[in-house]
Amino acid sequence: MTLAWCGIVTTILAVLGALFGYLYAGIDGLWSALVGVVLAAVFLGMTALSILIAGRAQGPDQLTLFFGIVVGAWILKLIIFVVVMLLLRGQPWIEGTVFLVAVIVSVLASLVVDAVVLSKARVPYTGDVALPESSEGGAHGPGRS
Q: Helix, strand or coil for residue 5?
């Protein structure tokens, strides 16, 4: 659900970012906004994908494997981010202000989507727990109505 909403929000942000980027800095602003929005979307998608993959981990060390996959993906994202920033540094078609605003707005929008989806998720608070049966008083226990 998060990926679907993030896709919709990313599309809207790409259109708005391209429009405002073009109005602010011409064609360089348009491309800077698009690159910023797409870059943020790719990295946020990588996080969601790593959690989906890690959620399927099986075995006795399931929790360790889960966090290993997620943290490994974060480290990979950091390395890719540094490489991409080094490649984009000094490019004549990057308008720094537009790029920065596009990345920040995209990340904030993704966080809002994540918060909304998480708040609406119906996740049980406990696992497979057997509750004790009451021998008298029905479902509410003795002396309760």
A: helix
Give the Å distances, CA to CA, from 96 to 6, 104, 128: 24, 12, 52
Is residue 106 within 8 Å of residue 10, measured between CB atoms?
Answer: yes
Per-residue pLDDT tens over the stretch 102-132: 999 998 988 888 788 778 776 666 666 677 7
What's the CA gap between 143 and 136, in Å, rounded? 9
Tokens of 87: 């490649």
Residue 88 to residue 82: CA distance in whole angstroms: 10
Q: Is 5 exposed, middle or buried (0-12, 13-18, 19+ CB in 10 A)?
A: middle
Contact 66, 53 (CB under 8 A): no
Angle at 92 between CA 8 and CA 27, to 5 degrees: 50
Residue 6 near residue 48, CB atoms below 8 Å: yes
The encoded tokens of residue 130 equal 């057997």
Whether this prediction's pTM lies above 0.85 is answered by: no
CB 93 within 8 A of CB 30: no
Residue whose tokens read 């993704």: 110
